[in-house]
Amino acid sequence: MDGTADRIEFETMLLARHIARPRRGDGNLESSAYLLLSRISIEGPMSVGELSEAFDLDTSTISRQTTAMMKAGLVQRIPDPDGGMARKFRVTDEGRNRLELQRAGHVRGLGAIIADWDPADSAAFAALLERFNNDIERRTGHPWPRPADVPGGHA
């Protein structure tokens, strides 16, 4: 093996660290809340079971995270809009505002980093990241929906 997978592992670990670090004024969400809010925002109300399946996590883990998010006013439990028995979580206005604030901070920060890059390099990097994530999702069987407002998105 040529060490490429080692380099990718190390660089994605650093990328996750850089991206997940909250910055003042950017919503200051825990990384789990940011991910859960992002998913619910894209898909609409979701139950504990649906979130557990989507994230491939135990329902007890999702329950702890959503309970903390409810206490923080980021989500609320509602009856299933489709008439099912399970209660679902919907993002509150506060949750949406904080998610949008944090996402905007991430986009600004990333934009500043790639500001001096050749536009073709930026586009190639984005395309390769999307391909990488799509391949992971295909392999694990846990696709992540892309929002329609993101280039390459289809939600």
Structural summary, described in words:
- With 155 residues, the protein is mainly alpha-helical.
- The chain has a domain at 20-116: Arc Repressor Mutant, subunit A (Orthogonal Bundle).
- It is 61% helix and 6% strand.
- The protein has 6 helices and 2 strands.
- The chain has a two-stranded antiparallel sheet.
- A hairpin with a 7-residue loop joins strand 1 (75-79) and strand 2 (87-91).
- Helix 2 crosses helix 5 (93-114) and helix 3 crosses helix 4 (59-71).
- The longest helix is centred in the C-terminal third of the chain and has 22 residues, at 93-114.
- The radius of gyration is 17 Å and the shape is globular.
- The model has no long low-confidence stretch (mean pLDDT 89).
Q: Which stretches of 5+ consecutive residues score pLDDT under 50? A: none
Strand content: 5-15%
What do we call the CATH homologous superfamily of the domain at 20-116? Answer: Winged helix-like DNA-binding domain superfamily/Winged helix DNA-binding domain
Largest sheet: 2 strands, antiparallel
- Count of DSSP-assigned helices: 6
First-residue to last-residue Cα separation: 38 Å
Indicate the CATH class of the domain at 20-116. Answer: Mainly Alpha
Produce a short descriptive summary.
The chain has helices at 4-20, 31-43, 48-55, 59-71, 93-114, 119-140; strands spanning 75-79, 87-91. The protein is mainly alpha-helical. It has a domain at 20-116: Winged helix-like DNA-binding domain superfamily/Winged helix DNA-binding domain (Arc Repressor Mutant, subunit A, Orthogonal Bundle).
